[in-house]
Amino acid sequence: MQTYELKEEIVHFISGSGIYKETREIRVNRYLTRSGWVLNKIEGKEEEIKSHEECVSYISPAVKEWENLDEILSKLTDVNVTVKKIHRKINDCIEEKILNYVEYNGLKFAYSGKPSDLKAVADFLKMQSISMNERIWGLERMNVILDPEATAHLFHQFMNFLRGDNPRIKLGERISSEITVYDDPLNENLIGFSVFDDEGVRTQKKEIIGDGIVLEYLGTLTTKNGSPGNARGVLPLPDYFNLIVKPKDWGFQELIQDTKNGLMVLGVIRSEIVKNSIRLFPRNSMLIGSGGVIVREIAIPLQELTTIDAISKEVKSVYIDDYHGGIAPFIRLKARPIVY
């Protein structure tokens, strides 16, 4: 039997309205069977747990700022903010941390750490707010530069093909010529920061893709594939924590100048998988040398990952969603913009 506890103390700051607070708590006992974790007590002997590195407790220094949160939030304007104090316990291991979410004019950012950094994040989002709205027609497969947020979303979706419970790409398979991707739960600044996963396994940085070759699956104590350490949820499933795409040696300006008749994707509203294609829905797009255009989505079949031919040395911490952090560069590949 394993005991799982999660308590979230949540403070919402709504611009122009004020502050409200809520608390969410989960406490369950779960049991390991051949088919995975269950919440109902089972008859007979439980399944043996795989050998793994035991968890250790951790309390983030940022927790000290929780008592001053109302004062910190009172200094913000024109943004919506949610701050969570997380207390997670699995058997005897405890983790406490602060997660911060900021939204301005449709732009979002999330990080783990001190709430006192919220104003700097809000100011950053305000500087990023732009609008482009020229409509064009008839774009074909072409060179596309993905900004760091779009790059992160691309590989966020690709991770679904590398889950240890149902891998759809073979270990050792080459998916690109040079891309390297890590899962790094131990980056304390990213929203997915966790010192142990939801099965109580100590987390570690994993190289998932190395120089374009699939090296590792996202595994749990119950998956046939992948080493444990990527369990997430009350009834855990394999998932990554923080996506890190390794930079290379292209300068951003060099990349722009080298890309003829190309499209640049600036930010992503959402992303999804359609069969064996990853679709990105851009926040903004621009034809290089021409200006902003409206593009509904970017279709990137998995085989187009082999066309990645440039990776910038500049990287940026980006928002993927409320559970996954990311740091990524600009990349260039072939893709098909869909404009209608």
UniProtKB/TrEMBL annotation:
One Gene Ontology term from the biological process aspect of the record: proteolysis
Highest taxon above the source species: Archaea
Ranges where the Metalloprotease TldD/E C-terminal domain occurs: 141-332
One of the record's GO cellular component terms: cytosol
Listed InterPro entries: Metalloprtase-TldD/E_C, Peptidase_U62_metallo, TldD/PmbA_sf
GO molecular function: metallopeptidase activity
Family indicated by similarity: Belongs to the peptidase U62 family.
Name of this chain's protein: Metalloprotease TldD/E C-terminal domain-containing protein
